[in-house]
């Protein structure tokens, strides 16, 4: 793709899959921003995706609703120890269950998975009615969530976890490998509850094959993040130094495997 010098002094004009001027990167300082993007889900349906960035707090939030009504919140906190809480709230009543059920998965966020919050805060969209598709589809990443988070102590890890995960109550999961990483970074051990060996997810029977509704089992949840800015694009102008001239968007799938105290709390896995 050939890039050219912008016509306006305060903007960089971008190209996105053959469509001109989809996003504009402003050069002025921006602390907070909100962007709404229409994206096509895996089943062909269209949903509205809300992206928020706060460069001062160094966080990015992506939120959208799946066609089954489940609300997905994907928050990235770069400022503390790079955490990524993903909250899933199912709003469909199931067999006498409450009006909704929430899950929350906490994982370590590697730098480079998302563009910096400062760059996200500068994004502007000029064609809000265009349905977006990702430039690149990444492979599905599998997470074995074999540890839990103590919500009353979660602020030691990130002050945002309580707000994002409060609806999940006791169903807030993480991985032992992430626990080890955070402990090495100085996070207090009281934040985490490591499951005993008898509750090892890989050794438990899957909830989908368990007949007893009150038996502990290994539950699975899958989700797709269909569109998010994953990398910055650089172009060369008349000078020798490249400049930021756009973004690359990605799509990525996630599968979470985790302990459930009884099958009754994992009815979507039964449906699958």
TrEMBL record:
One of its Pfam families is OAF_N
User: Locate the Out at first C-terminal domain: which residues?
Assistant: 206-270
Q: Where is the Out at first protein BRICHOS-like domain?
A: 33-182
Q: Which InterPro entries match?
A: Oaf, Oaf_C, OAF_N
Write out the similarity annotation. Answer: Belongs to the OAF family.
Name of the protein described by the UniProt record: Out at first protein homolog
**Which classification does the entry list for the species?**
Eukaryota, Metazoa, Chordata, Craniata, Vertebrata
């Amino acid at each position: 793709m050939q890039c050219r010098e912008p016509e306006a002094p305060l903007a960089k004009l971008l190209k996105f899959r053959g469509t001109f001027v989809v996003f504009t990167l402003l050069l002025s300082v921006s602390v907070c921003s909100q962007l709404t993007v229409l994206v096509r889900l895996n089943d062909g349906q269209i949903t509205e995706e809300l992206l928020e960035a706060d460069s001062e707090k160094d966080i990015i939030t992506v939120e959208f609703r799946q066609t089954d009504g489940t609300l997905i919140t994907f928050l990235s906190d770069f400022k503390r120890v790079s955490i990524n809480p993903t909250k899933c709230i199912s709003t469909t009543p199931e067999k006498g269950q409450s009006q909704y059920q929430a899950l929350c998965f906490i994982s370590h966020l590697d730098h480079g998975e998302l563009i910096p919050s400062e760059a996200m805060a500068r994004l502007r969209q000029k064609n809000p009615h265009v349905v977006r598709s990702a430039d690149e589809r990444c492979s599905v990443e599998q997470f074995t969530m074999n540890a839990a988070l103590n919500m009353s102590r979660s602020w030691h890890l990130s002050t945002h976890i309580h707000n994002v995960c409060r609806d999940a109550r006791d169903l807030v999961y993480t991985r032992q490998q992430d626990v080890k990483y955070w402990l090495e970074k100085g996070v207090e051990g009281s934040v985490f509850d490591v499951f005993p060996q008898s509750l090892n997810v890989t050794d438990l029977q899957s909830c989908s094959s368990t007949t007893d509704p009150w038996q502990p089992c290994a539950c699975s949840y899958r989700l797709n993040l269909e569109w998010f800015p994953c990398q910055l694009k650089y172009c060369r102008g008349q000078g020798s130094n490249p400049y930021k001239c756009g973004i690359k968007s990605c799509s990525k799938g996630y599968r979470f495997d985790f302990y459930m105290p009884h099958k009754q709390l994992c009815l979507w896995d039964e449906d699958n």
